[in-house]
Design goal:
Helices cover 45% and strands 9% of the residues. It has ten helices and five strands.
């Protein structure tokens, strides 16, 4: 959205990374040397079907700490493919290390003042803590923030109708953002929205 603002009208973020360093230890573990080999061994036949079904059964208990295991079962099954393991490992290591998230949007969240932004989060998110959503009020003062109760890292799965309603309502109520790269560049450089107003609406 900030690299190609002319192609983006609005931005909706659901349980997103990038609003702070904290992330679950399970994700941090993927950055440890040898994690790829461990993932490969852990997803081998014949225990892969049994583990995946066990995760799905646990997700149906309704407990806060097991709610997302049904979705994780699908991720776990996909890890049997070497190319999936390589992709997951690459993506995670590019943004996370043992300390947590090392790439954040905190220095770019101000761009919400030029483009409508909606943030949706689960109150019980165990991957990215809900305090990140609440921090968005300070980091992205122009953004709408919705925290859904009784929901974890997949609010669109836990409350699909509510998430769809929030997104449709957001699109209907807001005017498309019309920023251009020159305006984004000036806001990133100066941090002053007043100076951006004087930047021509032309791309380079």
């Amino acid at each position: 959205a900030y690299q190609y603002p002319e192609r983006t009208d609005r931005l909706v973020l659901v349980a997103t990374g990038g609003f702070g360093p904290e992330v679950s230890w399970a994700v941090r573990g993927l950055t440890v040397p040898g994690a790829g080999a461990v993932l490969g061994a852990a997803s081998l036949w014949p225990w892969r079907p049994a583990v995946a079904e066990g995760l799905r059964l646990l997700s149906r208990t309704g407990l806060r700490y097991t709610r997302d295991l049904g979705e994780m079962a699908g991720v776990y099954e996909a890890l049997a493919l070497p190319e999936v393991r390589a992709a997951v490992h690459h993506v995670v290591r590019s943004a996370v290390d043992w300390r947590g998230q090392i790439v954040t949007m905190t220095d770019r969240a101000d761009l919400s003042r030029l483009m409508p932004m909606c943030i949706i989060w689960g109150a019980d998110d165990l991957v990215f803590p809900v305090k990140h959503a609440r921090a968005a009020d300070e980091l992205a003062p122009g953004a709408e923030v919705h925290v859904l109760p009784d929901s974890s890292h997949f609010p669109h799965k836990d409350h699909p109708d509510e998430v769809a309603r929030l997104i449709v309502d957001f699109v209907q109520r807001t005017e498309p953002g019309t920023p251009h790269r020159e305006q984004f560049r000036e806001l990133l450089r100066s941090g002053d929205i007043a100076e951006v107003d004087d930047v021509p609406d032309t791309d380079v």
